[in-house]
Design a protein that fits this description.
It contains 9 helices and 14 strands. With about 260 residues, the chain is an alpha/beta fold. The protein has a single domain, classed as 4-Layer Sandwich (Metallo-beta-lactamase, Chain A). It binds zinc ion (ZN) and fe (iii) ion. Thiolesterase that catalyzes the hydrolysis of S-D-lactoyl-glutathione to form glutathione and D-lactic acid.
Amino acid sequence: MIQISALPAFTDNYIWLLQDHSTQRCAVVDPGDAAPVEAWLAARPGWVLSDILITHHHHDHVGGVEILKRATDATVYGPASEHIPARDVALKDNDRISVLGWEFDVFAVPGHTLGHIAFYHHGLLFCGDTLFAAGCGRLFEGTPQQMYTSLTRLAALPEDTLVYCTHEYTLSNLRFAVAVEPGNSDTVERLAKVRQMREAGIMTLPSTLALEKLTNPFLRAGETSIKQKVDERSGTDNSSPSAVFAALRAWKDKF
Ligand code: ZN
Ligand code: FE
């Protein structure tokens, strides 16, 4: 049984920490800062960091890798097509790796960055800055079409999949989601719940794919009501879901 906890970093990042209590080995996903990981290890003598998983090259995801690598000799996994510090294993689409005895599938999910990858193990998805709770990453490098294809691929995973993304953006994402779909009662309800959680300082992650499909406008670009809303705003006929997605993403960028 592997336990997953969040180590908060910077203002809104989570470094996901996977712990195998039977072997006292652990792994981290996207350690943008080494300090929270080092502090966790220092408080637990006997525990060993054996693996570091990286989704993409942005500093808030890789900033702690070199320090952790020097201190622990963990194996660093990251996308083959991006510059990842101290990377040991270069990953591409459909690769499979073993971490703490668990098999993880690697999916290429370009959009936020061109080389962005996600890690999937039955029911668990580590998706970096691609799919967020009620939102998705900005398009720094890829096209809307690429991102829409990536999100569609993730959305096809089992509905009960837990979504471990990197940022606590859920509240602001839901404010946008409600602006897009004021009549979606699941979204309105989720906003109220998440507002309470954030006021109480509670983390809103992980999410589930089932909940994302109900409330995340970026996974709902095929819905007629969303198409009508963005057509109205842009004054054009967005004829495909990926065109609706592009208009939604552009709207969110200025929201
Ligand atoms: Zn990023
Ligand atoms: Fe990030």
